[in-house]
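Why does residue order matter? Because the sequence determines the fold. Keep that principle in mind as you read this record.
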Amino acid sequence: MSDISMVPVTSSNIRSMGWSAGDPPIVPPVMRVEFLNGSVYDYADVSEEVFNAVLNAESVGKAYNSIVKNGGYASTKVA
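Structure:
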């Protein structure tokens, strides 16, 4: 699992989130989400603007679900 600086969030389901610019065009930007149950997922091609929108949303969990999880981003379980 690559080093992505994680930010703790207030959520009933999400522990922390992080974002990496990657190394385009070879390595796409990645948003990482760590859940309270310990699982961690990476979402490819998430822009910094989208990451910040989720991070700063009134409800992080609702924003994550509507924008990222259901937004068509490819995910990979990393832990």
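The beta strands are 6-8, 14-20, 30-35, 40-44, 75-77.
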